[in-house]
Amino acid sequence: TRKSMAIQNLRSGNLNIDNYLPIGTWALLPEKWIGHESCIAMILEWITEAQIKANQDIKRRIEEGDQMAMCVRAAKKYGIRVHAWILCFTATRAAPGVVADFKNRGWCLKTRDGRVSEYLDPSNRAVRERILNAVCELQSNYAIDGIHLDFVRWYEQCIKPSNAAEIISRFVVDCRSRIKHPRWFTVAVLGKYPSCVNAVGQDWVGWLNSNIVDYIVPMNYSDNLKVYESLVAFQGSSPNFARKTISGIGVTANESRLDAQQVIDQINIARNYYLAGVSLFDLDTRLEKDILPYL
Predict the structure, then answer these.
(1) Which residues on neighbouring strands pair with residue 277, listed in sequence order?
(2) How confident is the model at residue 28 (pLDDT cuts 50, 70, 90)?
(3) Digit-coded pLDDT (tens) for 59-111
(4) Which residues contact 6 (CB under 8 A, 6 or more apart)?
(5) Nearest 5°: phi and psi at 70?
(6) Which DSSP symbol is given to 257?
(7) Using the 8-state DSSP alphabet, how is residue 289 labeled?
(8) 202: which of 73, 128, 196, 236 fits an S-S bond (Cβ 3.0–4.6 Å)?
């Protein structure tokens, strides 16, 4: 039959304008499309080609060792959400060649004693655009569930302008405008407020009150339980703060190294103040072997 021949041609890749078999009806076609029926096939072909290209790109990234592609693929299998973690105004973990390039472009901040640091200038438009482009690219190329920004701040030892906090807040707003619903937008912040505003320009209370971010993740890294609780107490001092705060617990941070009991104690404090959740830093062998089994 013509139908079986059309299916055979489709499967063999021999389908063309001469042996194409129309299926369906134009009866329900919107009025504005009448007379332009041939365009529909072109649009469908374009969509199909775009989908094939996207799948080929994903396959290529996996074959080439694209860590993000492999992460998303593995996580989806187990129902785990993936949030792309972006280090914003720092190049301290970048390759030496990348750092040298940033310095040559004049992107790096100077310290108070005049040295060029490995921290990036939040007031530099090119630096901000580079990060914002990365935010858009990650969403376009990967099926991620959210964007998490880290180092959204000035370097503590640098020379800062008088409007340092305003510059950071404006950048956070710009990121928010580029993150497409329903993806989450979270930001790592210093836990002690308001000193973090003057120190690094992070006015996260203002961000919460203005609903700019979905969650803050304050780095409450301390092995002193009283210090930890004092930070959490402020972050949970209002329902609006508490429901948008995920407490960062420094399991293996520079500032603290915790055993399983200490982690449990800090989790319970976060629960007592009705915070949205906790985040354990950093995912390493110790966290995997010595902490997580007891949780």
Answers:
(1) 246
(2) low
(3) 776 677 788 888 999 999 999 999 999 999 999 999 999 999 999 999 999 99
(4) 15, 19, 20, 21
(5) -70, -35
(6) B
(7) I
(8) 196
- Per the structure block, which two tokens stand in for 30? 């919107």
Q: Look at residues 218, 225, 295, 219 and name the one whose alpha carbon lies nearest to residue 252.
A: 219
Mention every residue, 6+ apart, whose C-beta is less than 8 A from residue 213: 172, 176, 185, 186, 187, 204, 207, 244
Q: Is 145 helix (H, G, I), strand (E, B) or coil?
A: coil
Contact by Cβ (8 Å): 92, 152: no
State the DSSP string of 67-122. HHHHHHHHHHHTT---EEEEE-SB-TTS-HHHHHHHHHHT-EEEBTTS-EEEEE-T
Q: Which residues contact 27 (CB under 8 A, 6 or more apart)?
A: none
| Relative orientation angle of helices 125-141 and 164-178, to the nearest 10 degrees | 20
| Cα–Cα dist 47/227, whole Å | 56
Predicted TM-score of the model (pTM)? 0.77
Q: Which DSSP helix (H) or strand (E) runs through 36?
A: none
198 to 6, 174, 178, 195, 255: CA distances (angstroms): 70, 21, 27, 6, 21
Q: Are 207 and 240 in contact (CB under 8 A)?
A: no
